[in-house]
Design goal:
With about 80 residues, the chain is mainly alpha-helical. The protein has three helices and no strands. α1 packs antiparallel against α2.
Length: about 80
């Protein structure tokens, strides 16, 4: 189970190397920063879901946030 963390790190490192070669030529500094922030967020989510498998995933978060809005729209429509 702990072997997944180095595998996750290796996967993200490989993706980052190939993406960074492309981003270095065409992207601005802001675009590279956005890429790194999103990469960090996804890595953190993967790490947390590995160690806490009962943690709700992103789809449950979207349902929690937008569920009341959806219900209000269905009742009003």
């Amino acid at each position: 189970m702990t072997a997944a963390i180095p595998g996750l790190l290796a996967f993200f490192a490989i993706v980052t190397v190939f993406q960074w070669l492309k981003l270095r030529k065409t992207a601005t500094a802001k675009e590279r920063l956005v890429y790194l922030v999103l990469l960090g967020a996804v890595w953190l989510l993967g790490f947390l879901l590995h160690w806490l498998p009962l943690l709700p995933g992103p789809t449950q978060l979207v349902k929690f946030v937008f569920g009341p809005l959806s219900q209000a729209l269905e009742k009003g429509g």
